[in-house]
Automatic annotation (TrEMBL):
Source organism of this protein record: Actinomycetospora straminea
Keywords: Membrane, Transmembrane, Transmembrane helix
Protein name per UniProt: Transmembrane protein
Superkingdom of origin: Bacteria
Transmembrane segments: 12-33, 45-67, 88-113, 136-153
Keyword Transmembrane helix: yes
Length: 164
């Protein structure tokens, strides 16, 4: 079995689960295209999708990659200047995850947070957007607090010897 997996990875370049996930994604895209094919505004959906990809790849990705590299290099420079060793629990991931969650929520709920979508929400659900900014700030604070608690718990956990 191991030889077959090794041969598969040598030929394909990744685990068989990668291929399964890829086939599943293509099946999902095919189902969506089938549903949208009769829609008269399918062209604008395609334009929006391609625009989102281009905006992500050319604008957003370089910005958050630069922020992440700055955080990692700043941590490295601080350790080098203070002659400290790397901590046994890294802090970068405990900042990355809540920041990504917060930004994702901001992007998804931006029309409600910025109150630009108030007429639509009022018409569709009979609700106003008055509390969305406060709720987003509370969720963001909760994400960072939860991450800090997990980080503190990981720092307090005794170090176990890893088998080589």
């Amino acid at each position: 079995m191991r030889r077959a997996l090794a041969a598969w990875e040598r030929v394909y370049g990744a685990d068989p689960l990668h291929l399964l996930a890829l086939v599943g994604c293509f099946a999902l895209v095919a189902a969506v295209v089938r549903q949208v094919a009769d829609e008269p505004s399918w062209w604008w959906m395609l334009v929006w999708f391609v625009g989102a990809i281009v905006a992500h790849d050319l604008v957003t990705y370089p910005l958050y990659a630069l922020a992440d590299r700055s955080l990692v290099l700043g941590r490295w420079a601080w350790r080098r200047r203070t002659h400290r060793t790397a901590p046994r629990v890294g802090v970068v991931d405990h900042l990355r995850l809540p920041a990504m969650g917060s930004v994702l929520l901001l992007v998804v709920f931006w029309p409600s947070i910025s109150r630009a979508g108030e007429p639509v929400l009022l018409f569709a659900a009979g609700r106003t957007t008055t509390d969305y900014l406060d709720r987003w700030l509370w969720v963001t604070a909760g994400l960072f607090l939860l991450s800090a608690v997990v980080y503190a718990a990981r720092l307090g956990r005794p170090v176990r010897d890893r088998p080589d």
